[in-house]
Amino acid sequence: MSLLVTPLSASRAPSMLVVMASALVLLALCGVAFGSSWIPIDKVAAVILGVGEKTQSLIVLQLRLPRVVIAILAGGGMAVAGFLLQKITRNSLASPGVLGVIDGGALGVVIFLAALSNESNTLVTSIVFQPLAAMAGATVGIAMVFLLSGRQSVSAIRLLLFGIAVGAVAKALVMVMMLIGPIYRTSQAARWIAGAVNEVNWTEIQITALLLLPLLILALAVARKLPPADLDEVSARSVGLDLPVFRILVFAVAAALTAVSVAFVGAIGFVGLMAPHLARLIVGRSTVAGIIGSFLLGAFMLVGADLVVRVLFSPTEVPAGTVTAIIGAPYFLFLLMSKQRDDG
Amino acid sequence: MTANSAPSISIDGLTLTYPGKTVLDSVSLDIPRGKITVLAGPNGCGKSTLLRAIRRLHRPAAGRVLLEEMDVAALSEKALARQIGLLAQNPSAPEDMTVEELVRLGRYPHQTMLQRWDAQDTRALEAAMAGTGVTGLRDRPLGSLSGGQLQRVWIAMVLAQETEIVCLDEPVNHLDLAHQLDCLDLVRQLNAEFGRTVVLVLHDLNLAARYADQLVFMRDGGVAACGTPDELMTEALIAQVFNVDAMIITDPAYGRPLCLPLRTC
Predict the structure, then answer these.
(1) Which segments of B135-213 are extended strands (E)?
(2) Does the pTM of the predicted model rise above 0.90?
(3) CA pair distance A309, A332, nearest whole angstrom
(4) B141 in contact with A at a CB cutoff of 8 Å?
(5) What does pLDDT average to over chain A?
(6) Interface with chain B: mutation pick from A238, A241, A338, A343, highest number of B CBs within 10 Å
(7) A1 CB near a chain B CB, below 8 Å?
(8) What pLDDT score does A183 carry?
């Protein structure tokens, strides 16, 4: 891998971030413009500025903008979680998907939907609590990984293996719950597991944004402390990084970020793996630029994935998570194979 | 050099256990200020563990480590990192990290939320790279360096920390003969020019005798003997600590004791 990575001077990172942000804005506008009917970009801008025509306003504000906004929040949040996990485990294969966080979150949501639905298949409590259920599940997932790996948790590879095992158990339980449980809108649970950004409303976006913002600020604050995490355990500690404390903090923040991100859109895979890895290639080693770059790239990927399913499969609603998985899985394999070259 | 003659570090009845095993058994030892102390002993005697325990990387089951008469258990991670630098036995950093990026990490304990990188940090960074002769390599990725260059860069990182005390855990382990001398001469130079207190773990007895002001022989988790190399490099003591029959001669070049191992005993 080292040949692929040219170290960039820190001064180039800000301009790269501006480029990424511009690309995201452009793609987001496209995301609103495309759909069953094409709305020209200038009309989209007019609607967003509050001076658009009525039908177009309805389509943009009620149908298209929500899915773009939730894609930005969810993709960005998962990417930042992935960045933190890759940093603290010193392993570019780490991501919320392989550490039991997403599957734990999925289990939390499915239990929530199953336990709190009545006979007529309607939810007896507010949907507002769904992210809390996801967060509880994600926290239990990652805590299990930690407890089971015990002293081995300092070894990134062992941690990943335990993560995959815990994830598999959670997946199986989700399957069982879906097959036997009286689930409020079974199709919703199924969609959740595939990961889709449609059918999201503004209330859900508000909940996501309100929870995500403080977590992102916390992630930035933690990241500023993290540069020594690039070193081995003893060296990192001997320059003064309190690793035993920071490791738990970083895992907790990453789990919470993932849970909030996936709470409404579901288990979108691989964004948390690819975005932070690419961000590091683009902006270099700075942790703060890495967090911002990961957010922008993760958002870009999910908005892009959703755009692709809409353009290619319309009018069938294919979950965006299928696209991220189709691109992400080979990417994971590529990383795995290039790592093997490095190790051997 | 300071006139203070109190030891930099006093280790007081330090006991350290892993599950089912006592690694350090009630060790007491003073590390003299401004001197080079070398810890030596057979494999598994606890010398590396003792070094890491001085830097509080292990929690003792009993006893304490006093740094300038302060219990290290009471210090924050960063405060400790401003006073004791430790070069790990097999340190590792990403291959694409540059030399300067690594050495800059040595300034980490000096930075707080309020105090960002400043002129003092730049001065320490440049001095550390110049002192170890790696300034010319500053933009090179670590993966492109030779073993000897890499070790110098790691020493530069520890040096940039500007700590009174520098601990090095087998710093010449994977180096060839020329680089071993090069590395240890550098350590001695840091000791002599900057008055740093140095604690080294070394495997090679003859290197230990050549560079140590104070030599410590460890065995079975305890201190077997402590003194100058002349006091410790005796045939009886080497047989007792290392299970080796040896002949001790005086090396004709430097006048230091030299151990010729003959056979195990």
Answers:
(1) 165-169, 197-201
(2) no
(3) 21
(4) yes
(5) 83
(6) A238
(7) yes
(8) 57
> Residue B226 and residue B233: Cα distance in Å, rounded?
11
Q: Render pLDDT for B147-194 as a digit per residue (tens, 0 to 9).
A: 999 999 999 999 999 999 999 999 998 888 988 998 999 999 989 988
Confidence of residue A4 (pLDDT cuts 50, 70, 90): very low
ipTM above 0.95, yes or no: no
| Beta strands in A44-98, from DSSP E residues, in sequence order | none
Apex A212 CA angle, B112 and A85, nearest 5: 60
Query: Which tokens belong to A278?
Result: 């690419």
β-pairing verdict for B165-169 and B197-201: parallel
Residue B200, CB-side half-sphere exposure with 13 Å CA sphere: 32
Rounded Cα distance between B122 and B128, Å, is 10
Looking at CATH, the fold of the domain delimited by B1-83+163-237 is given as Rossmann fold (3.40.50)
| Three-state secondary-structure class, residue B2 | coil
Mean pLDDT of B83-107: 94
Distance to chain A for B100, nearest Cα, Å = 11
Q: Which residue shows structure tokens 């430790």?
A: B86
Query: How many Cα neighbours within 13 Å face the side chain of B174?
Result: 11
Q: Which token pair is A221?
A: 């604050």
Distance from CA of B158 to the nearest CA of A (A): 8
Domains and CATH numbers, chain A: 33-343 (1.10.3470.10)
Chain position carrying tokens 């930005």: A72
Of B96, B106, B141, nearest to A239 by CB-CB distance is: B106
Give the whole-angstrom CA distance, residue B90 versus residue B97: 17
Sequence letter at residue B23: V
Residue among A5, A228, A240 minimizing CB distance to B96: A5
Residue with tokens 């022989």: B217
Q: Which residues contact A20 (CB under 8 A, 6 or more apart)?
A: A282, A293, A296, A297, A300
- Give domain limits for chain B: 1-83+163-237, 92-162
| DSSP-assigned letters across all residues of chain B | -----S-SEEEEEEEEEETTEEEEEEEEEEE-TTSEEEEE-STTSSHHHHHHHHTTSS--SEEEEEETTEEGGGS-HHHHHTTEEEE-SS----TTSBHHHHHHGGGGGG--SS--S-HHHHHHHHHHHHHHT-GGGTTSBGGGS-HHHHHHHHHHHHHHT--SEEEEESTTTT--HHHHHHHHHHHHHHHHHH--EEEEE-S-HHHHHHH-SEEEEEETTEEEEEE-HHHH--HHHHHHHH-EEEEEEE-TTT--EEEEEEEE-
